[in-house]
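Quick question, first post here. What does this chain look like in 3D?
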Amino acid sequence: MEIIAVFNDIEKLELKLLELYQYFGNLFSDDPAAADLFTELGNEEKSHSDLIQYQRKIVRKNPKLFENVDVNIKEVRDIISNVDSIINRIQLPELNEAIKIAIDFESNAAEAHYRSAMQQANQEVSDLLKHLGVLDKEHFSKLREFAKSRGFLQSP
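> Answer (accepted):
Ran it through. Tokens below.
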């Protein structure tokens, strides 16, 4: 697949997660700790998007240096679609459900990034995808710690 198209879809994923965290932050604005967590995660998703934009600029300046890439875009697009369905559903989630939803999305995004990174012949793209996977795992950890602190998850 053309690398620019892959970057476009991965950026859409990051921006869709930003939208989800903004939605959750607004929904739980009466809980300062929860709102702060979602705001922080949203800000970080924006920085992930900025990182992808930067990589896209590098590719556009030197397109001959970059090959097509092998990424399961369907997996990325499915996550985007699932986020949309959460944001647009009629029944509002409780905080514990919102945290579990976010944990699932971060876990799925991390796995998608890592699987895609392992398929790459292009080292720069592989490194970017691995880095995004690490950042998703950090979000996963923050969400799990918050969930544990609220009694939504039991410590292993």
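Residues 32-61 form the longest helix (30 residues).
The chain has a mean pLDDT of 88.
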